[in-house]
Amino acid sequence: MNKTRPQYVLTFDTANEVVAIGVGVLDAASQSVDLIASREVEARRQSNTQLLPQINDLLRENNIDRTNIACVVCGRGPGSFTGVRIAMATAKGMASALEVPLWGVSSLDAVAWNNWACGVRGRLTVIADAMRKEVYPVRFDLDDQGVVRLDADTVIKADEYATTMDVSEYIAGDGLGKYADLFESRGSFVAEDLWTPTGQGLLLAFQEQWHQTGIDPLNRVAGNPALLLPTYTRLSDAEENERIRLSKNDPKNLTTGVQHEGIRHDQIPQEHDTAIANAREDESGIVYRPLDEAHVADVVHIEAALMGSSAWRDLMVREELPRKDRSWWTAFANDELVGYAGGMVCDGQLQILKVAVEPDYQRRGIAKELIARVAEDARGLGAQTASLEVRASNTGAQAFYKMIGLESVGTRPGYYSDGEDALIMQGPLPTATNDVAGMALQSHTYAYSQESKNATKPLILAIETSCDETAAAVVEGKGTLVSDVLASQIDFHARFGGVVPEIASRKHTEAICGVAEQALKQAAFGWKDLDAIAATYAPGLVGALVVGVAFSKAAAWALDIPYIQVNHLEGHIYANKTTTPDLEPPMVVSLVSGGHTMLVEVKDWGNYHIMGETLDDAVGEAFDKVAKALGLGYPGGPAISKHAQEGRANAIDFPRAMLHSGDLKFSLSGLKTAVITYINEQKNAGNDLNIPDIAASFQQAVIDVQVAKAKTALKQTSAKEFCLGGGVAANQELRRAYETMCEKAGVRLTLPPLSACTDNAGMIALVAHDRYKQEKFAPLNADAQAQANLEEPY
Ligand code: KG4
Ligand code: ZN
What we know:
By secondary structure, the chain is α/β, with parallel strands linked by helices. It contains 23 helices and 29 strands. A seven-stranded mixed sheet has the order 12-13-14-15-16-18-17, with helices on both faces. Strands 6, 7, 8, 9, 10 and 11 form a six-stranded mixed sheet that branches. A six-stranded mixed sheet has the order 19-22-21-20-23-24, with helices on both faces. The relative contact order is 0.09.
């Protein structure tokens, strides 16, 4: 390393309504970070458009070259979930592309340290707004030596905290904006500009962390950008609700419906509730459920029998239950509690507090499963690693913990009340798989892809995060894909019966570094080889899109190369090139996915006319809802088509909506309702449901309308090419129907492989390749959008 070059630390935070940025210089000898420049700007929900331009300006004004950034430090919250993720995704993209370490600091510590720098001394309570009438409070003591944090991160109702908190000399935090009345009498408010993080506060908090941990800020192993996660302090609402339901009810009594964010719950027959499925016995007759009050006594009973002097008593276990940083799971056999595990999340680490299984039930993998459940919750709360203490003499338990990936890292002498030493064991979160954030990585090669050794410039990395797949691909100069990888979150959403937006955003934040790195690795290129970076910017779930957009923009900025934004639907159209490289407009494309149903006339690449769309539900949505009504789980499309193979397509005469409407509009909610009504009628009449017949008849009703309208569209445009896009395009019966229709009509049909029908980044890369040639680049303030009109050029 060239010692004469200054080593800059770039830090930023967008956990609140303020974008805070700081630049400092590292001095390894004195372990200090000296502030050079900082800036705080009101963001008002615009952090994604503000952050990168402001960083760019600040560095330029101070003549700092981005290649001299030696590490990046990001505020981890707690704060607005999306706000924190914008800073985190930006930091991850930037640090990855610059190939420098990424560190996190608490946004609340940054507030406290900024107050310290501004001369505040004494007890300071920082109360940040947590929405839903809740706050994130932490107490600090500030003296001339520095800042000492007194509490772990937590979330609590604002009024409850106000009545129970100690009187504090000073109070800061953006929670005061909303709850000034509640906290007025609890301490004196510092000036309003000291309520949120600043560049100075972030750097001081980082410097303190350096002193405390002694870890070299330039250590790229410890500072791996993939490892950093936001501080959430609570699970998504959907997960919270599920936990409450699972723990409060016996599986047989689970009857009521539940509202999850982002999912419509009309007409879910009770026996198909996913929570019930979750609470069913596994193959060995064990049921896993979160610990509830009614079973505390059983836990205490086993504790007393197995744990000797370190057994927890009733109150200790009971006090765990309401805490949001805790997760406790239990195992039942024949309605009897036979095992449990509990843990707490602190500073990104799961501390496993308890694991116990009744002797008769040991050696059946129950402990491992219990820990995996606790670890899964912990991951949702931002944990990356796990640790625990175990008796030095308990070699059996130590062997078990080794098996789940923990290693001994030291001892605590005399830790137990009887004087025995504890061994400290640590390791990655012991979940079932330790790959990309618990997701399996898939990678695809197409006829159209080629080996990287023949690749030509420009090289473009494309990122897709619009829904529940985190995907990355690399395309080379001739427009062929050299890598295409994705991590699917489907397993994390399936139990809620649909995609839960908050979970999707969290998973993208966890997976994005690993997925992007994997795409580069498979292409055998490094970040510095890239000529542009592209991302899906619309349409989709904004909170999910924003992760890919912020990551990609920041990586492009770091490398000083263009950022390209791509419309997801245009990607689905381009996906057909993976099958038919010489595809040429004019053509008609049918886009059928979980969110869209439309016929598009492609006049030229980039020039689209929407000939007709659905007036209500999308086709994939109809498949999913009918599947749910039949108890077939999520996603419904594949399940329905599988059952349909055994059924008669003409068994039930379901309506073909709009078949003769004379236009190219679709309507699917009537069909969905007709199927559900039919199911209910059959049930009420005491008849067994013929699932194959229902599935086949429903599927046929969909196909008849789809094919008829596609035929009309081809006639109207005289196009000689017909293509498909979107998840429903994977439906075999639909594909066969199009083969017949296109053959008769003398039209060339392109059917992309299943992997190119569902969401992927390869298709985004193919669009980006064209955009690059046209020099259509997006500015640093480009954002994500839920909606975008495919007809409007962008
Ligand atoms: O394009 P996609 O992966 O994601 C969205 O952008 O929505 O499409 C997912 C949709 C789901 O609704 C799923 O049920 C449906 O595609 N799907 C199918 C089949 N495979 C997936 N629908 C019918 N038949 C299939 N074989
Ligand atoms: Zn899609």
